[in-house]
Design brief:
Cathepsin D, subunit A, domain 1; alpha+beta; EC 2.7.7.49; RNA-directed DNA polymerase; 20 strands; binds zinc ion
Length: 364
Protein backbone atom coordinates (compact mmCIF):
# COMPACT_ATOMS: atom_id res chain seq x y z
CA UNK A 1 0.00 0.00 0.00
CA UNK A 2 1.03 3.59 -0.50
CA UNK A 3 1.73 5.72 2.49
CA UNK A 4 0.11 9.07 2.96
CA UNK A 5 1.67 12.17 4.45
CA UNK A 6 -0.25 14.93 6.19
CA UNK A 7 -3.60 14.07 4.57
CA UNK A 8 -1.95 14.61 1.20
CA UNK A 9 -3.99 12.43 -1.20
CA UNK A 10 -0.99 11.82 -3.44
CA UNK A 11 0.78 8.43 -3.24
CA UNK A 12 3.84 8.26 -1.03
CA UNK A 13 6.26 5.43 -0.67
CA UNK A 14 8.26 4.73 2.45
CA UNK A 15 11.89 3.97 1.69
CA UNK A 16 15.12 3.80 3.61
CA UNK A 17 18.38 5.59 2.82
CA UNK A 18 21.38 4.83 5.04
CA UNK A 19 18.97 3.39 7.56
CA UNK A 20 16.85 6.54 7.72
CA UNK A 21 13.17 6.48 6.74
CA UNK A 22 12.00 8.76 3.98
CA UNK A 23 8.55 9.33 2.57
CA UNK A 24 8.86 9.92 -1.10
CA UNK A 25 6.20 11.16 -3.45
CA UNK A 26 5.61 8.85 -6.38
CA UNK A 27 5.37 11.22 -9.29
CA UNK A 28 4.91 9.61 -12.66
CA UNK A 29 5.22 13.03 -14.25
CA UNK A 30 8.77 13.57 -13.00
CA UNK A 31 11.52 12.30 -15.24
CA UNK A 32 14.11 12.40 -12.49
CA UNK A 33 14.23 11.54 -8.82
CA UNK A 34 14.68 14.70 -6.81
CA UNK A 35 15.52 15.21 -3.17
CA UNK A 36 14.18 18.36 -1.50
CA UNK A 37 15.43 20.42 1.42
CA UNK A 38 13.81 18.29 4.12
CA UNK A 39 15.29 15.15 2.66
CA UNK A 40 18.70 16.66 2.03
CA UNK A 41 18.90 17.87 5.64
CA UNK A 42 18.40 14.32 6.81
CA UNK A 43 21.40 13.21 4.76
CA UNK A 44 23.83 15.95 5.68
CA UNK A 45 25.41 13.85 8.41
CA UNK A 46 26.38 11.09 6.01
CA UNK A 47 29.11 13.08 4.31
CA UNK A 48 27.79 12.45 0.82
CA UNK A 49 29.74 13.89 -2.02
CA UNK A 50 27.65 15.71 -4.53
CA UNK A 51 28.53 16.43 -8.11
CA UNK A 52 27.62 20.01 -8.79
CA UNK A 53 25.68 20.76 -11.91
CA UNK A 54 24.24 23.86 -13.49
CA UNK A 55 20.78 22.55 -14.20
CA UNK A 56 17.36 23.75 -13.39
CA UNK A 57 14.10 21.87 -13.38
CA UNK A 58 10.54 22.91 -13.97
CA UNK A 59 8.25 22.02 -11.12
CA UNK A 60 4.55 21.29 -11.10
CA UNK A 61 3.46 24.89 -10.53
CA UNK A 62 5.43 25.95 -13.61
CA UNK A 63 8.32 27.60 -11.78
CA UNK A 64 12.00 26.95 -12.37
CA UNK A 65 14.17 25.59 -9.57
CA UNK A 66 17.94 25.41 -9.53
CA UNK A 67 19.58 22.03 -9.14
CA UNK A 68 22.27 22.18 -6.50
CA UNK A 69 23.90 18.98 -7.69
CA UNK A 70 23.45 15.27 -8.18
CA UNK A 71 24.12 12.47 -5.76
CA UNK A 72 23.87 8.70 -6.06
CA UNK A 73 21.64 7.45 -3.29
CA UNK A 74 21.25 3.81 -2.30
CA UNK A 75 17.50 3.63 -1.79
CA UNK A 76 15.93 0.63 -0.15
CA UNK A 77 12.34 -0.31 -0.84
CA UNK A 78 11.39 -3.42 1.10
CA UNK A 79 14.27 -5.80 0.32
CA UNK A 80 15.32 -4.12 -2.86
CA UNK A 81 18.13 -1.61 -2.98
CA UNK A 82 18.87 0.48 -6.02
CA UNK A 83 21.36 3.28 -6.35
CA UNK A 84 19.40 6.13 -7.86
CA UNK A 85 20.99 9.23 -9.30
CA UNK A 86 19.14 11.94 -7.45
CA UNK A 87 18.96 15.67 -8.08
CA UNK A 88 19.26 17.91 -5.07
CA UNK A 89 16.76 20.76 -5.33
CA UNK A 90 16.45 22.75 -2.12
CA UNK A 91 13.41 24.69 -3.33
CA UNK A 92 11.30 21.57 -3.21
CA UNK A 93 9.26 20.94 -0.12
CA UNK A 94 8.83 17.18 -0.38
CA UNK A 95 11.55 15.06 1.18
CA UNK A 96 12.00 13.22 -2.03
CA UNK A 97 10.12 12.87 -5.29
CA UNK A 98 10.46 9.58 -7.10
CA UNK A 99 10.58 10.12 -10.83
CA UNK A 100 10.07 7.52 -13.52
CA UNK A 101 13.74 6.55 -13.23
CA UNK A 102 12.94 5.25 -9.77
CA UNK A 103 9.84 3.41 -10.96
CA UNK A 104 11.83 1.79 -13.69
CA UNK A 105 14.95 0.96 -11.70
CA UNK A 106 12.93 -0.42 -8.82
CA UNK A 107 10.71 -2.22 -11.28
CA UNK A 108 7.51 -1.30 -9.57
CA UNK A 109 4.03 -1.10 -10.93
CA UNK A 110 1.25 0.71 -9.17
CA UNK A 111 -2.47 0.47 -9.18
CA UNK A 112 -3.98 3.76 -8.11
CA UNK A 113 -7.49 2.34 -8.02
CA UNK A 114 -6.72 0.50 -4.83
CA UNK A 115 -3.62 2.48 -3.80
CA UNK A 116 -1.35 -0.50 -4.19
CA UNK A 117 1.96 -1.13 -5.79
CA UNK A 118 4.09 -4.16 -6.37
CA UNK A 119 7.37 -5.21 -7.85
CA UNK A 120 7.02 -6.33 -11.36
CA UNK A 121 7.85 -10.02 -11.43
CA UNK A 122 8.24 -10.66 -15.08
CA UNK A 123 11.46 -9.84 -16.79
CA UNK A 124 11.36 -6.50 -18.44
CA UNK A 125 12.54 -6.56 -22.02
CA UNK A 126 14.10 -3.43 -23.27
CA UNK A 127 13.35 -2.80 -26.93
CA UNK A 128 16.89 -1.85 -27.89
CA UNK A 129 18.41 -4.92 -26.31
CA UNK A 130 18.40 -7.26 -29.20
CA UNK A 131 19.98 -10.05 -27.25
CA UNK A 132 17.90 -9.70 -24.11
CA UNK A 133 17.14 -12.96 -22.51
CA UNK A 134 16.18 -13.69 -18.98
CA UNK A 135 18.70 -15.29 -16.73
CA UNK A 136 17.31 -15.73 -13.31
CA UNK A 137 19.61 -15.12 -10.43
CA UNK A 138 17.88 -15.09 -7.14
CA UNK A 139 14.51 -13.58 -6.56
CA UNK A 140 14.66 -10.43 -8.56
CA UNK A 141 16.09 -9.88 -11.96
CA UNK A 142 16.03 -6.67 -13.83
CA UNK A 143 17.28 -5.73 -17.21
CA UNK A 144 18.56 -2.22 -16.80
CA UNK A 145 18.39 -0.05 -19.84
CA UNK A 146 19.67 3.30 -18.71
CA UNK A 147 23.35 3.33 -19.34
CA UNK A 148 24.54 0.51 -21.47
CA UNK A 149 22.58 -0.80 -24.38
CA UNK A 150 24.56 -3.95 -24.33
CA UNK A 151 23.70 -5.41 -20.97
CA UNK A 152 21.18 -8.07 -21.36
CA UNK A 153 22.26 -11.50 -20.54
CA UNK A 154 22.72 -11.18 -16.86
CA UNK A 155 21.58 -8.77 -14.29
CA UNK A 156 23.28 -8.08 -11.05
CA UNK A 157 20.98 -8.55 -8.12
CA UNK A 158 21.44 -8.22 -4.41
CA UNK A 159 21.73 -11.96 -4.03
CA UNK A 160 24.55 -12.27 -6.55
CA UNK A 161 27.03 -9.88 -5.06
CA UNK A 162 30.41 -10.77 -3.68
CA UNK A 163 32.66 -8.79 -1.39
CA UNK A 164 34.76 -7.49 -4.23
CA UNK A 165 31.70 -6.05 -5.93
CA UNK A 166 30.20 -4.63 -2.74
CA UNK A 167 33.50 -2.97 -1.81
CA UNK A 168 33.85 -1.47 -5.26
CA UNK A 169 30.31 -0.18 -5.11
CA UNK A 170 30.87 1.39 -1.72
CA UNK A 171 34.09 3.01 -2.90
CA UNK A 172 32.36 4.45 -5.93
CA UNK A 173 29.59 5.90 -3.77
CA UNK A 174 31.95 7.29 -1.19
CA UNK A 175 34.74 8.50 -3.45
CA UNK A 176 33.25 9.08 -6.88
CA UNK A 177 36.14 11.34 -7.83
CA UNK A 178 38.61 8.51 -7.37
CA UNK A 179 36.59 6.32 -9.71
CA UNK A 180 35.93 8.53 -12.71
CA UNK A 181 35.58 5.55 -15.01
CA UNK A 182 32.91 3.92 -12.88
CA UNK A 183 29.25 4.73 -12.58
CA UNK A 184 26.35 3.32 -10.69
CA UNK A 185 23.02 2.87 -12.35
CA UNK A 186 20.12 0.66 -11.35
CA UNK A 187 22.32 -0.55 -8.52
CA UNK A 188 24.74 -1.93 -11.06
CA UNK A 189 28.30 -0.82 -11.59
CA UNK A 190 29.38 0.24 -15.03
CA UNK A 191 32.88 0.91 -16.22
CA UNK A 192 33.87 3.13 -19.08
CA UNK A 193 35.99 1.02 -21.41
CA UNK A 194 36.93 2.38 -24.77
CA UNK A 195 39.34 0.40 -26.88
CA UNK A 196 40.49 3.43 -28.77
CA UNK A 197 38.11 3.12 -31.68
CA UNK A 198 35.12 5.40 -31.92
CA UNK A 199 31.74 3.98 -31.06
CA UNK A 200 28.45 5.20 -32.42
CA UNK A 201 26.92 5.68 -29.06
CA UNK A 202 28.78 6.53 -25.87
CA UNK A 203 26.49 4.18 -24.01
CA UNK A 204 28.28 1.35 -25.78
CA UNK A 205 31.46 2.23 -23.92
CA UNK A 206 29.88 1.63 -20.54
CA UNK A 207 30.29 -2.01 -19.66
CA UNK A 208 28.40 -3.79 -16.95
CA UNK A 209 30.82 -4.80 -14.22
CA UNK A 210 30.28 -8.46 -13.46
CA UNK A 211 30.54 -9.76 -9.89
CA UNK A 212 32.65 -12.85 -9.42
CA UNK A 213 29.56 -14.94 -8.81
CA UNK A 214 28.11 -14.20 -12.24
CA UNK A 215 31.19 -14.43 -14.44
CA UNK A 216 30.65 -18.09 -15.17
CA UNK A 217 27.11 -17.33 -16.26
CA UNK A 218 28.36 -14.67 -18.64
CA UNK A 219 30.95 -17.05 -20.07
CA UNK A 220 28.32 -19.70 -20.45
CA UNK A 221 25.81 -17.35 -22.06
CA UNK A 222 28.36 -15.94 -24.48
CA UNK A 223 30.02 -19.18 -25.42
CA UNK A 224 28.08 -22.37 -24.65
CA UNK A 225 24.55 -21.26 -25.18
CA UNK A 226 23.03 -22.60 -28.39
CA UNK A 227 22.69 -19.05 -29.65
CA UNK A 228 26.32 -18.35 -28.78
CA UNK A 229 27.50 -21.19 -30.95
CA UNK A 230 30.82 -22.00 -29.31
CA UNK A 231 32.83 -19.30 -30.96
CA UNK A 232 36.60 -19.29 -30.59
CA UNK A 233 38.56 -17.38 -28.01
CA UNK A 234 38.82 -14.10 -29.87
CA UNK A 235 35.21 -13.95 -30.95
CA UNK A 236 34.02 -14.89 -27.49
CA UNK A 237 36.26 -12.20 -26.04
CA UNK A 238 34.88 -9.68 -28.47
CA UNK A 239 31.33 -10.60 -27.63
CA UNK A 240 31.87 -10.41 -23.88
CA UNK A 241 33.93 -7.21 -23.88
CA UNK A 242 31.12 -5.63 -25.88
CA UNK A 243 28.89 -5.74 -22.86
CA UNK A 244 30.83 -6.63 -19.78
CA UNK A 245 33.87 -5.85 -17.73
CA UNK A 246 35.74 -7.56 -14.97
CA UNK A 247 39.42 -7.53 -14.12
CA UNK A 248 41.34 -10.28 -15.86
CA UNK A 249 38.45 -11.13 -18.14
CA UNK A 250 40.67 -11.84 -21.16
CA UNK A 251 42.53 -14.63 -19.43
CA UNK A 252 39.33 -15.99 -17.92
CA UNK A 253 37.68 -16.18 -21.32
CA UNK A 254 40.67 -17.86 -22.95
CA UNK A 255 40.87 -20.40 -20.17
CA UNK A 256 37.16 -21.06 -20.33
CA UNK A 257 37.04 -21.58 -24.09
CA UNK A 258 40.13 -23.77 -24.06
CA UNK A 259 38.56 -25.96 -21.42
CA UNK A 260 35.21 -26.25 -23.20
CA UNK A 261 34.45 -29.93 -23.74
CA UNK A 262 32.15 -29.30 -26.67
CA UNK A 263 34.81 -27.28 -28.48
CA UNK A 264 37.45 -29.87 -27.76
CA UNK A 265 35.27 -32.51 -29.33
CA UNK A 266 34.16 -30.53 -32.35
CA UNK A 267 36.52 -27.84 -33.45
CA UNK A 268 40.02 -28.90 -34.37
CA UNK A 269 41.37 -25.35 -34.34
CA UNK A 270 40.39 -25.00 -30.71
CA UNK A 271 42.60 -27.81 -29.64
CA UNK A 272 45.96 -26.90 -31.00
CA UNK A 273 48.00 -28.72 -28.39
CA UNK A 274 46.02 -31.87 -29.06
CA UNK A 275 46.41 -31.57 -32.82
CA UNK A 276 50.10 -30.95 -32.55
CA UNK A 277 50.42 -34.00 -30.41
CA UNK A 278 48.51 -36.05 -32.94
CA UNK A 279 50.60 -34.71 -35.79
CA UNK A 280 53.79 -35.50 -33.98
CA UNK A 281 52.60 -38.99 -33.25
CA UNK A 282 51.42 -39.61 -36.80
CA UNK A 283 54.62 -38.23 -38.24
CA UNK A 284 56.56 -40.52 -36.00
CA UNK A 285 54.61 -43.54 -37.20
CA UNK A 286 54.88 -42.61 -40.86
CA UNK A 287 58.55 -41.78 -40.64
CA UNK A 288 59.23 -45.04 -38.91
CA UNK A 289 57.41 -47.01 -41.58
CA UNK A 290 59.06 -45.01 -44.34
CA UNK A 291 62.49 -45.52 -42.88
CA UNK A 292 61.79 -49.16 -42.34
CA UNK A 293 60.93 -49.60 -45.99
CA UNK A 294 63.54 -47.39 -47.53
CA UNK A 295 66.49 -48.06 -45.39
CA UNK A 296 65.96 -51.68 -44.82
CA UNK A 297 69.49 -52.98 -44.95
CA UNK A 298 69.77 -55.27 -47.91
CA UNK A 299 72.85 -57.23 -48.64
CA UNK A 300 72.98 -59.01 -51.97
CA UNK A 301 75.18 -62.00 -52.41
CA UNK A 302 77.41 -62.64 -55.43
CA UNK A 303 75.60 -64.56 -58.13
CA UNK A 304 72.15 -63.70 -56.71
CA UNK A 305 69.41 -63.15 -59.33
CA UNK A 306 67.93 -59.62 -59.19
CA UNK A 307 66.09 -57.18 -61.40
CA UNK A 308 67.68 -53.93 -62.50
CA UNK A 309 65.67 -50.89 -63.43
CA UNK A 310 65.92 -50.39 -67.17
CA UNK A 311 66.66 -46.75 -67.98
CA UNK A 312 65.83 -46.45 -71.64
CA UNK A 313 67.06 -43.79 -73.97
CA UNK A 314 64.67 -40.94 -74.36
CA UNK A 315 65.57 -39.49 -77.75
CA UNK A 316 63.04 -39.55 -80.55
CA UNK A 317 64.63 -42.36 -82.50
CA UNK A 318 64.37 -44.68 -79.58
CA UNK A 319 60.94 -43.47 -78.53
CA UNK A 320 58.87 -46.46 -79.53
CA UNK A 321 61.52 -48.88 -78.47
CA UNK A 322 61.75 -47.27 -75.08
CA UNK A 323 57.96 -47.41 -74.65
CA UNK A 324 58.07 -51.09 -75.32
CA UNK A 325 61.23 -51.77 -73.40
CA UNK A 326 60.89 -53.78 -70.22
CA UNK A 327 60.92 -51.86 -66.98
CA UNK A 328 63.33 -54.24 -65.35
CA UNK A 329 66.04 -56.48 -66.70
CA UNK A 330 66.97 -59.78 -65.12
CA UNK A 331 70.56 -59.77 -63.84
CA UNK A 332 73.00 -61.44 -61.56
CA UNK A 333 75.08 -59.78 -58.90
CA UNK A 334 78.65 -59.73 -60.07
CA UNK A 335 80.39 -57.79 -57.37
CA UNK A 336 79.59 -55.76 -54.23
CA UNK A 337 81.31 -52.39 -54.42
CA UNK A 338 79.92 -50.78 -51.28
CA UNK A 339 76.90 -51.11 -48.93
CA UNK A 340 74.54 -49.90 -51.61
CA UNK A 341 76.42 -50.26 -54.89
CA UNK A 342 76.79 -53.45 -56.88
CA UNK A 343 78.18 -54.44 -60.24
CA UNK A 344 75.57 -56.38 -62.18
CA UNK A 345 75.84 -58.73 -65.14
CA UNK A 346 73.22 -59.57 -67.78
CA UNK A 347 71.43 -62.76 -66.76
CA UNK A 348 71.54 -64.29 -70.22
CA UNK A 349 74.94 -63.23 -71.57
CA UNK A 350 76.87 -62.68 -68.32
CA UNK A 351 78.10 -59.39 -69.77
CA UNK A 352 78.77 -56.66 -67.20
CA UNK A 353 76.07 -53.98 -67.04
CA UNK A 354 78.11 -51.62 -64.89
CA UNK A 355 77.58 -50.42 -61.34
CA UNK A 356 74.11 -49.85 -59.89
CA UNK A 357 72.72 -48.35 -56.77
CA UNK A 358 70.56 -50.52 -54.57
CA UNK A 359 67.57 -48.21 -55.20
CA UNK A 360 67.51 -49.42 -58.82
CA UNK A 361 67.73 -53.04 -57.89
CA UNK A 362 64.66 -55.14 -57.16
CA UNK A 363 64.84 -58.45 -55.43
CA UNK A 364 63.66 -61.45 -57.37
ZN1 LIG B 1 32.75 -24.36 -26.61
Amino acid sequence: MFSSVDKDPRPYLKVEIFGVDFFGLLDSGASQTVIGKAGWDKLLNFGLSMETCKNSIRVANGGQCDVLGVVDLPIRLNEKIRVIRTWVVLDIEAEIIFGIDFWRDMDIVSDFSDSSWKFKNELKMSPNLGCARGVKHGKSHVVPDALSRAIALISVTDTSLDNWYIRLKRNIIEHPNKYPKFKLRDGNIYKFVNFGHPTLDERDDWKLVVPKTLRRDVLHECHDDPSAGHLGIFKTQKRITNCYFWPGMGADIARYVRACEVCKAQKPEQRRPYVQERLRKTYGEVAQRYNRLRRRPVTLSIGQVVWKRNYTLSDAAEYYASKLAPKFIKCRVLKRLSTNVYELADFGTGRSLGTWHIKDIKLN
